[in-house]
Design a protein that fits this description.
Helices cover 31% and strands 37% of the residues. The chain has 106 residues and is α+β, with helices and mostly antiparallel strands.
Length: 106
């Protein structure tokens, strides 16, 4: 059975050079909705973040569960920000239904 990993992180706001840099971190992680106004119309686009590409269960604002197979990708992303954030990883037990969800079978 695949192993599930709980990932939690916290940011050190003082280490970010600006609020826009901090927002960049969150946008790259979670993605965002972009609204462009043209000719009296609004066009909405969903810009993907790394977690849009990885099946995950969001536990809280800065806590989520992924399969171990995706852990390397998350570690690479967090290492890019390691001077501004702290993260921890913990192996967790999940029921079959949640494992299937993370495997994309539900």
């Amino acid at each position: 059975m695949p192993r599930a990993i709980l990932v939690c992180f916290s940011i050190n706001t003082k280490k970010f050079s600006s609020s826009s840099e901090r927002n960049k971190f969150f946008k790259e992680l979670y993605g965002w909705k972009q609204i462009i106004k043209r000719n009296k119309r609004n066009y909405e686009y969903r810009r993907e973040g790394i977690l849009d590409k990885i099946p995950h269960i969001r536990v809280d604002q800065s806590i989520f569960i992924i399969l171990e197979t995706h852990l390397k990708l998350m570690q690479e992303f967090f290492r890019e920000w390691e001077d501004k954030i702290r993260w921890e990883e913990f192996e967790v037990l999940l029921d079959e239904e949640r494992i299937k969800f993370l495997e994309g079978e539900l």
